[in-house]
Design a protein that fits this description.
Helix content: 40-55%
Largest sheet: none
Number of helices: 17
Keywords: ANK repeat, Repeat
Structural class: mainly alpha
Distance between the termini: 86 Å
Radius of gyration: 26 Å
Length: about 325
């Protein structure tokens, strides 16, 4: 009954199904946005039988696959809907129109699918099976791996993308890599996968030369610190103003009113792996600069850190 009513309404309205509404949506886009999983497939079927252009863009330059990828609903529903649209001719690989095209916000359908986090796998796999290009970059240079790392995506999908030739070292326009996003998010399995892929663990990711390892230490993400050390994180690398990773760890203590178990574990890890407790900040030829011990000793937590450093051979240079 609903199917017949929709057909009659379209046939007698005289309105093109491909024009934009006030919100900039075609009828197909609106069907996905506004109808539920029961009605939506029927409405789409009716629209397509009445010459709806399945590859038409919305006013915001969104392809129909972009709309599906960022819609709500269960992953099963979204996967089924994307598959039906692809079978009807939604083009996942046409420059300027398909899933590889960037929408008005500069993201492709694959990028939007990755924002579904742990549920992203089925949608991404469906798009890839129908020709979506995993190498597509969004407007600011991020690849799908950046999005998976940022939005807690499943490592098995990241592995699938890696096997398709996606570069795990790819930086965005700010120099940030998927490894940084995974480290900041505390996604240890993703960090390990990226390291196994041969990613540059010691590649600077900011203009101040910090690496993902510096961020893991600063954020006290113990498991990520362990994985990065296992894959060759450089304890002697210097970031901004010649600071070593121990200087950044001291700064983390400075922000704490008390010590923490995670910070203490990182202390032991860094020292056990050969961090120089007497390294001076800065690259001054005269040897001036502040040691890690000189920088600490203000808060109670820093006092604990200073005692730990001295017990491991740290000297004060003041």
């Amino acid at each position: 009954m609903q199917h017949s009513f929709s057909t009659t309404l379209i046939e007698h309205s005289g309105v093109s199904v491909n024009i934009w509404d006030e919100g900039g949506l075609t009828a197909l886009h609106a069907a996905i946005h506004c109808s539920g999983p029961t009605a939506c497939p029927h409405i789409i079927d009716v629209l397509l039988r009445h010459s709806a252009d399945i590859n038409a863009l919305s006013k915001a330059v969104q392809h129909i696959l972009h709309t599906v990828a960022q819609s709500g609903g269960t992953v099963e529903y979204l996967t089924r809907l994307a598959a039906e649209l692809l079978q009807h001719g939604a083009d996942a690989n046409v420059g300027g129109a398909g899933a590889n095209a960037l929408d008005g916000n500069g993201a492709s359908a694959l990028h939007l699918a990755a924002t579904h986090g742990v549920h992203a796998g089925a949608i991404i796999s469906g798009l890839l099976r129908h020709g979506a290009d995993p190498r597509t970059r969004c407007r600011d240079g991020r690849c799908v791996l950046h999005y998976l790392a940022k939005f807690t995506g499943p490592p098995d999908v990241a592995k699938q993308l890696r096997n398709l030739g996606l570069d795990p070292n790819a930086p965005d326009e700010h120099g940030q890599t998927p490894l940084l996003h995974a480290t900041v998010a505390g996604l240890v399995k993703m960090v390990r996968l990226l390291c196994e892929s041969g990613i540059g663990v010691n590649t600077p990711i900011f203009d101040d030369h910090k690496t993902a390892f510096f961020c893991a230490v600063r954020l006290r993400t113990v498991d990520a610190v362990q994985v990065l050390l296992q894959y060759g994180a450089d304890l002697h690398h210097r970031g901004h103003s010649g600071r070593t990773v121990l200087h950044y760890h001291e700064a983390a203590y400075k922000a704490m009113s008390n010590g923490s178990a995670d910070a203490a574990r990182i202390n032991k890890l860094l020292i056990a792996c050969g961090a120089n407790v007497n390294a001076k900040r800065g690259c001054c030829r005269q040897g001036h600069g502040m040691s890690v011990l000189d920088a600490g000793g203000i808060t109670r937590a820093q006092g604990e850190f200073a005692l730990f450093l001295m017990s491991n051979g740290a000297l004060s240079f003041r």
